[in-house]
Amino acid sequence: MNFDPLSYPYDSRRSVNYANNGMVATSQPLAAQAGLEVLKKGGNAVDAAVATAASLTVLEPTSNGIGGDGFAIVWKDGELHGLNSSGPSPRALDIDTVKEEGHEEMPKFGWTPVTVPGIPAAWSELNERFGELPFEDVIEPAADYAENGYPISPILGKYWQAAYRGYKENLEEEKFQNWFNTFAPKGRAPDIGEIWRSKDHADTLRKIGKSRAESFYRGELAEKIVEFSKETGGFFDKEDLSDFTPEWVDPISVDYRGHEVWELPPNGQGIVALMALNILKDFDFSCKEKVETYHKQIEALKLAFADGKKLITDPEYMDVGPEELLSEEYASERRDIIGDEAIEPEPGRLGERGTVYLATADGEGNMVSYIQSNYMGFGSGLVVPDTGIALQNRGNTFSLDPEHANCIEPRKRTYHTIIPGFLTRQEEAVGPFGVMGGYMQPQGHLQVIMNSLDFDMNPQAALDAPRWRWDEEKRVYVEKSFADDIAKALSRKGHDVNYSLHSGSYGRGQIIWKDEDGVYAGGTEKRTDGHIASW
Fold first, then answer.
1. Could you give the percent of the chain with pLDDT greater than 90?
2. Which stretches of 197-251 are assigned E, i.e. beta strand?
3. Measured CA distances, 429 to 130, 260, 432, 534 (Å)
4. How far is CA 24 from CA 3, 72, 80, 332, 339, in A?
5. Helix, strand, or coil here: 482?
6. Using an 8 Å Cβ cutoff, are 520 and 14 in contact?
């Protein structure tokens, strides 16, 4: 890609990072270093991704954990591969069961929103198919951090303290006590700079490493999960775990400005970003800082989300496929709806969530776009005793409307917010990108891709640019650094523009682009403890 490495249209605390032997970009410096360590020991980009991901369950537990889900797009030996490792609901859970518990919508905490965790299987599957190093060795850096501890970084500490306050207020039942024992062992969240460690977490990681995740799904760890479920009113049985396997899928794409933008197919929401880009590609964007640019971006995104929130679920339950949603005819129909005034589609409310994203690259040109999450920060509030396994609450996105495509049913995968992205040009890899953050993710993908391809920004500038976030109806949030004159002009077009959300609400991204000479250029997120490790 062609860009000026010294061009910074926005304030930045980082410059572009260049390297040719390998690169790891993620939201926590020690995790990036763990991935780099594996590269230097002879591992490839896939090994580095798994090492970084495993480390993030220790080093950023506010956003992910062993009990969450993972997705990956892998560029290996000139081909693109997709992995969906999101787990289904338990076979004992359906709409009637949820309503009998007294819920009118899916709850956030407890066993009801817990789906089968996919992360350990994702790590094993990636390493087995594409890795160079023994799986146990790739997991060890994470286990070492868990056993020996590490100092809490600033943004991590901020979110940990916020989570503790929320859990202390809402999670009073005995079944949640293991969360406090694990993540607040001194009766409070750890302070910034304070050492935190979890021997249980270390032991669990080593059991996963030694058994290639078999212990988690069919062995000792599985038994502990099922036992905890039975003792505390959960829905899991041993077959829920033993039947799970990740799914290799074909990524989907749209052509945009001479490039191919790739996402994974549903049940993930990556198709929302692709639908929006497909709508926008026939517009001419000559200037970024122009009200018409932002207006069209927001309107296209709203139209894409209106479809996504209605249709996306486990693909076995979808009546409409990606081919129809990404067709030129449908994009043209949706494009014609965009006028001079803000419109009001009707998807569900779009909230904030916790996720980690990472990008890796090695000296052979292999690259990985990887994302994993527990969903709402630490997840369901449930931690399996003596394991450090924080269980996700991904099932919260299920609907209790039996007519809705994403209604909860036994053994069904829900609408998934976490999405890795990848960019190619003429069948050659450009590189991985991602912006984590719940329903902000397609919005972040759209913005960084347009910053890169429409406005020629380098990776760091593309991430540093002020972001907007559509919430619902006509409500749009913008960062404090967003141009005031543009915000006022959007208001005059009917958008309900607000500045009130904190910086964490706008997602946290990473980018690695490769040029024709095989040199990597990386950007990392200023809105978190982001870091790039390279050599």
1. 90
2. 247-249
3. 17, 10, 9, 19
4. 21, 15, 19, 38, 42
5. coil
6. no
Quick: pLDDT tens for 229-238: 999 999 999 9
- Report the run of H or E that residue 80 belongs to, with start and end: strand 79-85
| Residue 352: Cβ-neighbour burial (10 angstroms; 0-12, 13-18, 19+) | middle
Residues 534 and 15: their CA atoms lie apart, in Å, by: 14
Q: What is the 8-class DSSP label of residue 315?
A: G
Helix 135-148 and helix 45-59: axis angle, to 10°? 20
- What does the alpha-carbon distance between residue 389 and residue 393 come to, in Å, rounded to a whole number? 13
Q: What's the rounded Cα separation, in Å, for the pair 403 and 391?
A: 28
Cβ proximity of 285 and 451 under 8 Å: no
- DSSP category for residue 78: T
Closest listed residue to residue 353, CA positions, set 412, 435, 287:
435
Which of 293, 355, 387, 414 is labelled catalytic? 355
Per-residue pLDDT of 64-110, as tens digits, reads: 999 999 999 999 999 999 999 999 999 999 999 999 999 999 999 99
Using alpha carbons, list the distances in angstroms from residue 210 to 214, 283, 515. Answer: 9, 53, 38
Residue type, 211: S
Longest dimension (CA), the chain: 61
Q: CA 234, CA 230: separation in Å to the nearest integer? A: 6
Catalytic status, residue 528: no
Strands (DSSP E) contained in 413-503 are 421-425, 428-436, 468-472, 475-478, 496-498
Are the beta carbons of 442 and 419 closer than 8 angstroms? Answer: yes
Residue 347, SS3? Answer: coil
Residue type, 187: G
3-state secondary structure labels for all residues of 366-389: CEEEEEEEEECCCCCCCEECCCCE
Domains of the chain: 23-248 (no CATH), 250-352+419-530 (3.60.20.40)
pLDDT tens track for 432-441: 999 998 899 9
Helix (H, G, I), strand (E, B) or coil at 517: coil
Q: Which pTM was predicted?
A: 0.94
